[in-house]
Amino acid sequence: GALWMCIVLNPHCKLEQKASWLKQLKKWNSVDVCPWEDGNHGNELPNLTNALPQGANANQENMGQCKSLEYQHLPAHKFLEEGESYLTLAVEVALIGLGQQRIMPDGLYAQEKVCRNEEQLISKLQEIELDDTLVKIFRKQAVFLLEAGPYSGLGEVIHRESVPMHTFAKYLFTSLLPHDAELAYKTALRAMRLLVLESTAPSGDMSRPHHIASVVPNRYPRWFTLSHIESQQCELASTMLTAAKGDVRRLETVLESIQKNIHSSSHIFKLAQDAFKIATLMDSLPDITLLKVSLELGLQ
């Protein structure tokens, strides 16, 4: 309903378009089964969900409207400009939905659902082979998400309880890396943060033990999926370390990000092991910088 309100209130739309939409909405209102639930009622109209490859375990649940968004009964030329197709539109809508800032919901089931929906949508996207047109869309959306305001989960400032972007950023990183390494690293490094684990102690004199004790118990919200989220954060860091082998500047930047953002000693130790393995692959000479990264992380 909110989506259709935005469409109908578009000041640039002609009266005949609005009349056409009204007729279509009345038609949908008269049927027993909503066309979004049963495609047979709207199969003559383009559906962006169906433009994505349909895997065996395709998830039908919505995620930020991006799985079921339909441009229905609208003139095709209004959307399909040169180089565009319903596939490119579907991919772009999916990237917009995945990158939106959203607050972690309450409860175990809802939090698991957030992770599951994100991973299933990314899994569908991974079935698509990126061509030049899609790479342009990835670049455009990555830049937009980095520069956007509070609606973006990759914006400069986010809410402390915003759903982390680690999984999405890892997908963006691997997709962009062969085409725009600078943007790939910028996106992944921005996503490394995990603000929910940052201290929220109020400013002032914190030297009194009873004052500290009164703050710490309420320090973290109840994130039941936190261990999974920290694992995804570690995976993102490991992916960057692997890609940065041989590049001293990037390795130092990734090391700083790990030291700043990862709070789990076990994950830092795992990254130290990963760095050592990557640095000492048998088919090449040891990477001295990566060995130093391994040592630094091990000491930490």
Automatic annotation (TrEMBL):
Entry GO terms, CC: Cul2-RING ubiquitin ligase complex
Cross-referenced PANTHER family: ZINC FINGER SWIM DOMAIN CONTAINING PROTEIN 4, 5, 6, ZINC FINGER SWIM DOMAIN-CONTAINING PROTEIN 6
Protein name: ZSWM6 protein
Organism of derivation: Thalassarche chlororhynchos (Atlantic yellow-nosed albatross)
UniProt gene name: Zswim6_1
